[in-house]
Amino acid sequence: MDNMKIQFLLVIIFFLFVVPASSSARDIAILLRVKSGHLGDPNGLLANWNESAPNAPCSWTGISCDRKTGQVVAIEFASFGISGRFPADFCRISTLQKLNLGDNSFGDSISPDSWSLCSHLHFLNISLNFFVGQLPEFIAQFDNLTVLDVNSNNFSGEIPASLVRLPKLQQLNIASNLLNGSIPEFLTNLTELTRLEIGSNPYKPSPLPSSIGRLSKLQVLFFRYANLVGEIPDSIRDLKSIQNFDAAMNNLTGRIPESLGELKTIQQIELFGNRFSGELPDIFSGLGSLFMFDVSENNLTGKIPESLARLHLISLNLNDNQLEGKIPESLALNPNLCQFKIFNNRFSGTLPQNLGFSDLDEFDVSGNNLEGSLPPNLCSRKKLQTLNLFNNKFNGPIPESYGECNSLAHVRIHNNQFSSELPAGFWGLARYTFLELRNNNFQGSIPASISTARGLTQLLISGNRFSGELPAEICKLEEVVIMNISKNQLSGELPSCITRLKTLQNLDLSENRITGQIPKSVSSWNDLTELNLANNQLTGEIPGELGTLPVLTYLDLAGNLLSGKIPSELSKLKLNKFNVSNNRLEGKVPLWLDDNYFVSGLRGNPGLCSLDLKPLPECPKPKSVSLYVVCILSAFAFILVGSLVCVLLKASKLLPIRSKRKSVWRITAFQRVGFTERDVLAALTDDNLIGAGGSGRVFRVKLKNGQMVAVKKLWAAKRVRESEEVFRSEVETLGRVRHGNIVKLLYTGIGDDFRILVYEYMENGSLGDVLHGEKIGFLLDWPRRFAIAVGAAQGLAYLHHDCVPAIVHRDVKSNNILLDEDFRPKVADFGLAKAMQQDTEGSDQAMSHVAGSYGYIAPEYAYTLKINEKSDVYSFGVVLLELIIGKRPNDSSFGENKDIVKWVLEGAPSSKKGEGIGHITDGSSILDLNQLVDQRMNPSSSNYTEIKNVFDVALLCTSALPINRPSMRRVVELLKDSSFPRPK
Ligand SMILES: *[C@@H]1O[C@H](CO)[C@@H](O)[C@H](O)[C@H]1NC(C)=O
Ligand SMILES: *[C@@H]1O[C@H](CO)[C@@H](O)[C@H](O)[C@H]1NC(C)=O
């Protein structure tokens, strides 16, 4: 017995001291060798890796040892900021089971050999790093690996077939990489899997593996953004443990399968953004655990099944389908419902009046055919934040109880038939940021209590019957950006304090009955871009102080009783819109306005006169002696210049233009060219054709003097009128414009059946061709793309800010940005360009149809047809995205009906926060961007900060609301700042 005890003790002592001592010495050596070999440790977290530390290496940061044996079992560096190559040598520690390198700056590719060193691990996490290349093959048998997480790196290529050598794998996460092979069927051989997350990769279109049902232990399936096609396989009925089924944002077709109804364990179904059609099957009666259900953005038809209404859902999302019928009354009785979103369907009838006895925070039924009154208790729990009811036919008053709904922040109930006064409390709810009541029949006055809605940024209440005075308390809305109270019945004077609203960008009070004068002390209006006070009863003079507003571009004071002269100070403004028509202004039109572009905005003022603007009465001729002298001198100068021009023209036999139109002449006379019309026409052969577009064909012509030019010949015959417009627009615009980033027009010619335009030749064609063309051998690297972005932005900024009147290009796209031999960009193709305020009826009706190119058109364009330089900013944002992502804005890989902007907004992995258990939301934005960036340009890691910043600018430019887009001048600044990392 004693002997055995002693032996036992010896064994214990042996294990406690002898074995650990020798193995830890070896482990220490391994650890230190790896650290000194190639680990970058900017935060110094491994500083205590010191041989002489007590209990080394178990006391070192990041190292864990087995309590009993004292051997190193885990190395965990999560979020240490460490860099280096994959430290495979750590795996030489034979007792190591867990290696977690997640969220660091490790990079480079991983060879199968070093990978194999780690085949004894149980847990391997290298997610959120910068690894590239193929996912390494598993050449050894990884017998014990249960967790493999490589998400959010830059791995590309196929999913390795050797993955099936991982017999015990329970969790596999390869999401958010650049894997571009197909999704293999053999994944379903990994039958121990409980989590399978492979989404957010640019796979080849693949079906969901048909034998997916073999994964009977699977709890989480994350296949979002995986380019899935075809139908959901029937075998999903065998996913007996599934909790979260996420195949959203793919191209899945067919019906929502009935077999979903057999997944008794399911909690969350995310199938939004596919192409499912048919009716929603009645599958819900057995799904007692389901709490989130999202099939929005499909093509579903029919009604909401009654059984859905009986679930204890937290979130129901059916928007953007073609569902119809009434909303089942029983939905209202669901005690858990927090989010109720059924917008953009065809639901009719009334809302269940019992809705609201749950913690509802988001209620969105906009875009249906709903009518009747609102459920009185919708906000009974005081949790409701978002109330979207717009574009329906609701009527009646807003229920009194809504005036106590203190949680409300975002209210959009426009385009309904609501009437009566608003409940008193409803005006001033303290959490408001957005209040949109447009186009209803509300009445009553705006009460002083509105001042408690301190955080309101947009107050859009036009098109109602609000009356009374605008209360001075409205000046307490210190964060308001857009205030539109137009088309109401407001009377009385403007509270003078309104000029203290510093953040105001857009103030529209038009079409009311406001009296008094326009306030003078406007120096706080530093952000105001649009001021519309048209069609009121304002009196007095136009204050010259308006000329000091730094960014005012839209000024409409038409239809008032304003008198006096047009103040000369206004000449400092860069106006897109200037309308003072139908007032009582008098005196001479100042020189800066003496231009046809502004004439419609001056009409209807009997006292206004001009020297030469046609419909206005002529001013009496001045008679002073000094003026006579000036006239004689100018006449002399005119003759001199005229004869000089004649001599030049004769010398070069340059008399191409038969039409006597002044504007056309003006253009050609500015440019000295050494060729004739005949030279050019002779060269317009098919051999020289380099492109054809909507308005004509483009040729490359080498002139006798060796100069290369590009000649655009506009279509004639049937499309004469259209091409005439394009021609005039091009000539008038480019004739006025001189800038290094705008293509130079050299010469124009008009024949009976043709119009030609001759430009400087741009060696490298259009940006679109270079980015997307077949010249695979040649690709733009990032620095070049960045320089192109800045140059093109400067060209556009010149059009918007330095030309008077400003010019809106209206067709900004990569194909209209040309590249010279040094890849300097020049904006071209002004066929659709418009000078602001050219049309007589004001900008609202300026366009008879949507112009521009699909994928680049700003969203507001489609419904307002309103010209605005911010539409160019949007299109330019699209070009920036194109430069970063390397795809055309309507590339088919973005999915049907989806353009690059929509794709980026929905596709960026961090944009749908919180939705889907398996969704990766914690990646830094740089990593998210990794997935988007055009890998053909081989970005170095140092490019990424710049790319990220340009990406941010692109997102700003493509904001849905024009008001949120920066001006082009600001875009130039922001882009230039990108070269320097911004302070955090
Ligand atoms: C797997 O783990 C078991 C038990 O921990 C161990 O005996 C076996 O050697 C391990 N296999 C490998 C390849 O490391
Ligand atoms: C997957 O499992 C099936 C059925 O057991 C087998 O026939 C097939 O060879 C396996 N695939 C791979 C790649 O091992």
Secondary-structure blueprint:
Blueprint: H1 2-38, E1 63-65, E2 72-76, E3 83-84, E4 98-100, E5 105-108, H2 112-116, E6 123-125, E7 130-134, E8 147-149, E9 154-157, E10 171-173, E11 178-179, E12 195-197, E13 206-207, E14 220-222, E15 228-230, E16 244-246, E17 251-252, E18 268-270, E19 277-279, E20 292-294, E21 299-302, H3 306-309, E22 315-317, E23 322-325, E24 339-341, E25 346-349, E26 362-364, E27 369-372, E28 386-388, E29 393-396, E30 410-412, E31 417-420, E32 434-436, E33 441-445, E34 458-460, E35 465-468, E36 482-484, E37 489-493, E38 506-508, E39 513-515, E40 530-532, E41 554-556, E42 563-564, E43 577-579, E44 584-588, E45 607-609, H4 625-651, H5 662-669, H6 677-682, E46 689-692, E47 696-702, E48 708-714, H7 720-736, E49 745-750, E50 755-760, H8 767-772, H9 782-802, E51 807-808, E52 817-819, E53 825-827, E54 834-835, H10 859-864, H11 869-885, H12 900-907, H13 925-930, H14 943-957, H15 968-977
Parallel strand pairs: 2-4, 3-5, 4-6, 5-7, 6-8, 7-9, 8-10, 9-11, 10-12, 12-14, 13-15, 14-16, 15-17, 16-18, 18-20, 19-21, 20-22, 21-23, 22-24, 23-25, 24-26, 25-27, 26-28, 27-29, 28-30, 29-31, 30-32, 31-33, 32-34, 33-35, 34-36, 35-37, 36-38, 37-39, 38-40, 40-41, 41-43, 42-44, 44-45
Antiparallel strand pairs: 1-2, 46-47, 47-48, 48-50, 49-50, 51-54, 52-53
